[in-house]
C-alpha cells in the first residue's frame, strides 16, 4: 500500500468527490456526509486478500471529533 494524499479542494474550498467510490464510514475524515469519499487517492488491501471480507481501506483516517 502506498502514500495517501489529503482532501482535494476546489478553488471554492469544496471537497471533490472521488468519483465511483461510495463510502458508508461516517467517522472517516474523507467522508463528505453524502456517502462519497473525498480523498484524492485510496488504497485498498492487503495484497493477500481472497474475498471482500479480507479487504480494508488503508486510506481511512479517523475524523477529528473536536470540529
Q: What report would you give on this structure?
A:
With 67 residues, the protein is mostly loops. It has one domain. The protein has no helices and two strands. It has strands spanning 44-45, 56-57. It has a two-stranded antiparallel ribbon with strand order 1-2.
Question: What order do the helices and strands come in, and which of them pair?
Answer:
Blueprint: E1 44-45, E2 56-57
Antiparallel strand pairs: 1-2
Brief summary:
It is built from no helices and two strands. The chain has 67 residues and is low in regular secondary structure.
How would you sum up the global shape? globular
Count of discrete alpha- or pi-helical segments spanning 4 or more residues: 0
Q: Helices and strands, in N-to-C order?
A: EE
The radius of gyration over CA amounts to 13 Å
Distance between the termini: 29 Å
Ranges where pLDDT stays below 50 over 5 or more residues in a row are: 1-11
What structural class do you assign from the helix and strand content?
little secondary structure
Determine the mean pLDDT: 80
